[in-house]
Task: inverse folding
């Protein structure tokens, strides 16, 4: 896999293309043990030892393609890992949590207990959701000139134990809404943990509305943010004129009951007993209305895991097919991945997964559940595990060397059996990451 590259014109390639063209998430499955990293290194050495020399197409479209398929392969691998693990025994065995009332709360299983462990269930009642702090300024005639003399003004915002000073200028031609709009952009673009926008009333007056990103209040805190211009470095007066320090709605904590015992949280996320991750969606409609939180049956958990796997697999095929017009070799990758499903097609159909003409899979949940409860369930789902393992191996291959599917011209073959290992020439993909820094 040694390459001779041309057209070193990449600038910050990874940071630019990844958010724009490929999924980018940080998960626990992106961390690795030393033994896993050693395995990757050994695979790199093996591939590079006998690989021929290439001249690659390093156009921006090819760079986009390489980044895209690598990240999509990583995403599919992480999807498989999230369904119980990457080993033969735990694969697709992840437990799935349920909530009997999604309007009150949704639940996700985040525990690490063994499959045969008894999982507790709970009754949840939500009394109050966590809310952010909202400041609402004075409503002023939007088109009237600002009643502050032209000058450079400033005010201080205290948030998360930090203080920020905002400076801006007011000109004689500025209207009230001009000043409010300028401050809204200034506060929001500062990215300090709050946002601002201009709101209007039925009379055409405008005001500045500011809201904290965080919800609730930690112990000892009275506000999420405080605004003042009493000790600012420039001209004061804008806080009083615009009413920036008026708290229209204070931040509040979530209040809820678990099996009758009262709890509170600064956010609408809560981890219960290190097993369930709860997302509060609304308050109980009447006193005593609860949502039951627990673990789905093995059949329901298996069905949901398989549906998640199929969605990830179909998403990968769709992402690869989008490059077909500009990257001819993407068709090869599409064919290789879809061929995995065709090899296991008969077994997958038995388990309730149907292979479509475009290579994607479709789940028949009724057949899936029937097979999961039948006497031949173990045999029916052996093909499912084989398919999952094959998909996993393919994603690892693509992640390790995405440049195999980029347009290239072979320049020379190495002398077989008489080459030294070249572990540092992993692929031109790595070179694209660092060309602009060298």
Result:
């Amino acid at each position: 896999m040694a390459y001779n590259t041309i057209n070193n014109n990449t600038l910050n390639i990874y940071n630019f293309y990844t958010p724009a063209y490929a999924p980018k998430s940080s998960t626990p499955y992106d961390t690795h043990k030393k033994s896993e990293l050693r395995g990757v290194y050994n695979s790199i050495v093996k591939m590079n030892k006998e690989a021929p020399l290439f001249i690659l197409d390093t156009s921006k479209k090819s760079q986009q393609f390489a980044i895209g398929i690598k990240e999509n392969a990583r995403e599919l691998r992480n999807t498989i890992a999230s369904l119980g693990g990457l080993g033969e025994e735990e694969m697709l065995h992840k437990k799935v949590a349920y909530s009997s009332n999604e309007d009150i709360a949704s639940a996700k299983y985040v525990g690490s207990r063994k499959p045969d462990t008894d999982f507790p269930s709970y009754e949840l009642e939500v009394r109050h959701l966590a809310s952010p702090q909202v400041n609402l300024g004075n409503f002023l005639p939007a088109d009237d000139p600002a009643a502050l003399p032209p000058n450079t003004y400033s005010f201080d915002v205290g948030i998360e134990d930090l203080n920020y000073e905002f400076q801006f200028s007011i000109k004689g031609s500025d209207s009230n809404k001009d000043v409010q709009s300028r401050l809204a952009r200034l506060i929001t673009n500062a990215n300090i943990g709050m946002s601002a926008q201009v709101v209007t009333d039925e009379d055409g007056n405008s005001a500045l509305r500011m809201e904290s990103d965080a919800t609730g209040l930690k112990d000892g805190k009275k506000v999420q943010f405080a605004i003042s211009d009493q000790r600012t470095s420039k001209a004061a007066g804008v806080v009083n004129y615009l009413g920036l320090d008026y708290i229209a709605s204070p931040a509040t904590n979530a209040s809820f009951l678990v099996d009758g015992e009262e709890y509170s949280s600064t956010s609408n996320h809560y981890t219960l007993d290190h097993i369930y991750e709860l997302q509060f969606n609304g308050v109980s409609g009447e006193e005593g209305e609860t949502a039951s939180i627990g673990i789905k049956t093995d059949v329901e958990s298996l069905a949901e895991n398989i549906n998640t796997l199929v969605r990830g697999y179909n998403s990968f095929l769709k992402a690869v097919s989008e490059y077909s017009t500009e990257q001819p070799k993407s068709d090869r990758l599409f064919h290789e991945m879809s061929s995995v499903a065709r090899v296991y097609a008969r077994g997958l159909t038995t388990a309730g997964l149907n292979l479509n003409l475009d290579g994607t899979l479709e789940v028949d949940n009724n057949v899936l559940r029937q097979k999961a409860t039948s006497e031949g369930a173990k045999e029916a789902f052996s093909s499912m595990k084989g398919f999952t393992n094959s998909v996993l191996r393919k994603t690892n291959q693509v992640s390790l060397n995405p440049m195999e599917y980029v347009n290239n011209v072979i320049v020379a073959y190495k002398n077989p059996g008489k080459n030294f290992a070249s572990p540092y020439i992993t692929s031109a993909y790595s070179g694209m990451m660092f060309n602009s820094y060298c």
Observations:
- Residues 298-321 form the longest helix (24 residues).
- The two ends are 21 Å apart (CA to CA).
- The longest strand covers residues 205-215.
- Confidence is low (pLDDT under 50) at residues 1-14.
